[in-house]
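Encode chain A's predicted structure.
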Amino acid sequence: MIWDHDDEVASVEILVSPDATVRVGTTGFEGNFVTVELTPATNPNLPNFRHLASDPAYTLPQLAIEDVREALRGRLVAVGRDADGLIVEATNVQTSAALDDVYAAAATQANLGVNYEGGVPVLRVWAPTAQLMTGVSVNLYDGSGTLMDTVPMTLDEASGVWSVTGDGSWDRMYYRYALTVYSPSAQALVANEVTDPYSISLSANSLYSQIVNMDDNDLKPAGWDTMVKPALAAPEDIVLYETHIRDFSINDSLIQPADRGKYLAFADPNGRGWQHVQELAAAGLTHMHLLPTFDIATVNEIEAERIDLGNTVDELCAANSAAASLCPDGRTIRELLQSLLGDSDQQQQISAWMKSLDGFNWGYDPFHYNAPEGSYASDPQGTQRILEFRTMVQGLNDAGLRTVMDVVYNHTNASGQNQKSVLDKIVPGYYHRLNDRTGDVLRNSCCDDTAAEFAMMEKLLIDSTLFWTRAYKIDGFRFDLMSFHPKSTMEKLRQELDALTPGNDGVDGPTVFVYGEAWNFGDIGNDARFIQSIQRNLGGTGIGTFNDRLRDSVRGGGPFDNGQAHITRQGFISGQFYDPNGDNSGADSEKNDLLAKADNIRVWLAGGLADFPLVDASGADVTGNDINYAGQDSGYTQDPQEAINYIGKHDNETFWDISQYKHPTGTSTADRVRAHNVGNSFILLAQGIPFVHAGQDLLRSKSMDRNSFDSGDWPNEILWDGQDTKFRVGLPSQKESGYNWTQIQQIFADVTAEPGAADIQA
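Encoded structure for chain A:
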């Protein structure tokens, strides 16, 4: 045990309370517990706990393995006493690493979730801390949610895995696990009924997991088993195109209304979006990057219960009384939005009233990692989402494109006893990264951070990635905040993918591309807890990382700029720097800033290679890692496939929108378009992997919205007809961009900033 306790502490003990009744009383601790005395020891400097290397360490006496397992099922309290034996400090004990020591060697070999073996389903769940007296059971339900049976599961002591073998009647039934565990968040034993962390199919709104055989023929579109992927000679040939399921087709009038915003739109050759990306594929595009498509927690999957743009204004008022001032109004919400002035604040207010009621969210709020999101299927209840997801992959394949999934293994939507918590209800306190002092779940990512430094979270990450590769023929994975995972985890994943071959798995794992966000920040920043998957650590791994060096040099400033910084922090494509009739020098400070940007651009035109030789702006002979980027080495890759070059993606303003802050008032629309094309040329002509935000080739705008994750369809939808761009269709969210409204209104007032059809074509 490692504990940074008070200096007064002279001796340490652990109170082991199997029934979690231990508590502080008037004269000390009360309840049912056993005291175990500890001995001072040398800190072992554990590789995943680098931040604890200088803290006091203790060893427990030799205990029978049965006693250790029993202790880990209950509540553990560390107690520090002074030289007189008086209690001076006490705290709960975090046990994730101990669970790994006891169980991981066997548990990591288990085939978790639902697997068909000998033609019947076998269910397995890792629940080592479940109380033995009550055990773990599987509750079986029919499609209406009626409980049909409760079947006890059997524990394998060595692995902590509970299992049960069903029969043919279980096929397509729904289920949840029932177990009693000690919950640190509740500080008590709790009885939970919870879905399977390895769920592959679900009921609507994820209330129940479903028992499904992924090899069933009715879950495969025609030709699925014999589908041949578009050729890919080398990862350096990849060109990525990022879109969101709803954005792609929600406003495509050539798609059947029932398929708009759904998986099936990607398999409809009549759709404008499908035809557009097919043309791009013929020009060299190779991969469609889809924002999260696994089961997410924040969208009501039952379409009839939602309020979307096709609903009437009166229906919105009935669903949210805050919108009452709009009513009565029999128009659709889309018709109302179309009638408003382009610089009005009403559009964002209406979108705010629709939040949690509509079907839009980016999806960075994982619920179940192995099941497709139900709101994108024609029917969210059961297996239709499986068939239609596969149909989408096949449809993109027919367009000449491979498919990339955006995966978010770095956090979950919830933890503890929250209604939408899954992992933490089965093994409480294990799967998430905790604050050392308080035990609270860290939320550096946005939400509840997971901890792949622990074996079974790492296993879930790798198992899930391999599942999507095998079951859905996914060709690439973009990792959200990949830096929150150990480098060793990502290297292990890369090795597992490389081992998948058509001969033994039916998929070509080596062509599956892995890339992600490798930003260095948070409680784990600078390798504080373990060696992270950050930019400087990943050169030579073959894993791609997003390149902020090129992004910031071209766009100007950084992703979190606001106010005057949007204007003063100029980019390489800003109007004042490319005036064909000027010398492009600017003031000395601006010129020096531009020259520094140019050096960074040169490095990343060469794929960000650390050892790439070049002559910098001062005339010196340098290499890529000699160039400065915000106090870091600019170049850090060893191969161009490790460089993800981009100037726009779903985060922050679109490339068109951010550029309008930089261009001087009155800059001609033609010059703005020229600057846009120059920006695109940097990423498309550089060495490395070009990453294009969908619609960026059509001057896509989100009406200056800098964080449209929950802004609804109105600013986010892509207009494939080339007639408009969603520029100046209302002020963006006041919460996200209100501090820039004055500047945005000035931009909206500049008629040269709004492109027309001829500009889009150019």
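The CA atoms of residues 137 and 196 lie 12 Å apart.
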